[in-house]
Specification:
Strand content: under 5%
Helix content: over 70%
Number of domains: 1
Shape: globular
């Protein structure tokens, strides 16, 4: 299973065309970095205030930022197989909420 995830990751990353990156795409890169690290910081703060353990915070952030298929990889690296179900569940719930939230945001933005 881990081998297939690694092959998938290498395949997707090998399709990137670095020559198409330009100075005009820098604001998009900055925005993506801000959103990913901002959401990670926000989740870390919430986990701290609600006293959620580190492994659960790491696995849920992996599920929300990367996707549920990467949860077993991170759980294997953490040597904690008990958190796989938590991560996959959070990732699927994130997909469900994200789809509807994205649709409503698109509808809202297209109205203006």
């Amino acid at each position: 299973g881990m081998y297939l995830i690694l092959i998938f990751s290498v395949t997707v990353s090998s399709m990137a065309d670095i020559q198409k990156f330009s100075i005009q795409s820098a604001p998009i890169l900055y925005y993506i970095v801000f959103v990913i690290f901002g959401s990670l910081l926000f989740q870390a703060l919430i986990s701290y205030f609600f006293r959620i353990d580190t492994d659960t915070m790491l696995i849920t952030s992996t599920a929300l930022i990367c996707s549920p298929p990467f949860v077993p990889v991170v759980a294997g690296a953490l040597r904690n197989k008990e958190i796989i179900i938590t991560g996959i569940t959070v990732g699927i719930i994130g997909y469900a909420i994200g789809n509807y939230l994205g649709f409503f945001v698109a509808q809202f933005l297209s109205a203006y």
